[in-house]
């Protein structure tokens, strides 16, 4: 099995690690959420890739087709996308509130303000 | 009709109450809706528990689609027990919350708080009741999203940052759980937990299953705040509104502990995976670290809510220790400790809410002489604290007794000794509180303070009474937990 055969998985792993790296390394709260979003998206690829068979159709009985893709992972990922969107929306709403309260969205500046307050 | 559809009602009642709260908007009306929905939910869960104890596991096919194709709600003694725990705690907190919310949250936002509360309850009950792996993830995220909102309502602006941090870590945990579920689906072709367990048992162990187990364990551990994945918890509990802290500390982490039991025993029990992965050893080591380090950190906290938040991390260590011991006494101890800790921490955080009503965020230096101004609150805090230590006669003693027994049964005397020694650390931080509360003159801030209103004291004291009652009469809790532990152990080879 060459690298090209499982290129989807390599891309998914690359995105997964990129996403989690951004979450850890960036101090900007919005950029962290972008990283989180990339991280979540990579998992969608892990689900979708194995369920797609090249040359196969949707599982509807029809003449001339005998190869079908599994629709279940697609449906699951639709749900996961909704959850992901809700998470990012809530995260961004929190960032707006944090900006109102602190006047900044940089993690270290927020930390500094908290330290000097106590 | 109603009786056969109880499992569906369990989740749907709070789910319907949530949008109803948004429509009604009036603070008092939404409180009434939340009140009726939570008490109805609690009644349903008790009915389910009695049914399960009477006639065995319930399998409910949602929408009439037979499992494993449709979504199945599967209730055995273990999750019936957790359902009762979550819904009864939720129901008891609602009457308390009325006054506490008036003091801590602007009244035009109350309806949103109740909406989030009901959605959170829906999610927690859903995770517990469902027998479908992907359903677990969806419900977990429903409850988590609502939890972030409940925390962000705190008066202190640090609540916002705490909520944000929890959102980041919680989402990483949830995504790990999705990866784990996805890998299991790839290997077994099913999402039904029961079916999955059977198929895993009948096939050789492949590497993706090991990866799935690892992802699931790390993901769930993030949600249950297992050391060292606990970083989100102290700030979240310290700055959330009193009601949210009491509700979350008593329920949210317990549901995650249940989930860890479900996956490590029911799903992977027969897979032989534990011969390839040092799961139990790792869990015991991390639990011990949590018990000692978190308790030590708790001793040095000035913010009392934060102190008890660290104590929660230590107490979660006792539960995971029971899971790691993997024998009947250990599991019984872990399951009973879920209940016992919920009762003790519920009591403590509700009473701290009474203090917060009078003086705001309770700091150690401001609690001096609390017993002279608010004697009932102070006495309740002492009982809760004693229960955290595990003094005989309180609930904490019962669960620690079973954990020590489990260690002795395995012949691990050192572990039994460590459990006892770690309890001594709890003595230190609880004594620090007692000393401040009882043996000093009232601080200036407390001079004007009087006992909290009766509507808050009664629910809080119900928790305190439960601390003592279930410490003396252990037949109900330990009896149910022992049956639940037995069903878990049946899934082991």
Task: Tell me what you see in this structure.
The complex is a heterodimer of chains A (118) and B (493). Chain A is an all-alpha fold and 118 residues long. Chain A has a single domain, classed as Helix Hairpins, CATH 1.10.287.3510. Chain A has 4 helices and no strands. In chain A, helix 1 runs antiparallel to helix 2 (29-51) and helix 2 runs antiparallel to helix 3. The mean pLDDT of chain A is 88. Chain B is an all-alpha fold and 493 residues long. Chain B has helices at residues 6-24, 27-55, 77-104, 110-129, 133-152, 158-188, 193-201, 207-224, 233-239, 242-267, 273-276, 279-299, 304-325, 328-359, 370-373, 375-389, 395-409, 413-438, 454-472, 475-490; strands at residues 58-61, 72-75. In chain B, helix 3 (77-104) runs antiparallel to helix 4 (110-129). The two termini of chain B are 38 Å apart. The interface between A and B is medium-sized, with 29 and 26 residues.
Strand element count of chain B: 2
CATH architect. name of chain A: Orthogonal Bundle
Order of helices and strands of chain B: HHEEHHHHHHHHHHHHHHHHHH
Number of helices of chain A: 4
Radius of gyration of chain B: 21 Å
Global Rg of chain A: 20 Å
Mean pLDDT of chain A: 88
Q: Can you tell me the overall shape of chain A?
A: elongated
What is the count of distinct domains of chain B? 2
Strand order of the largest sheet of chain B: 1-2
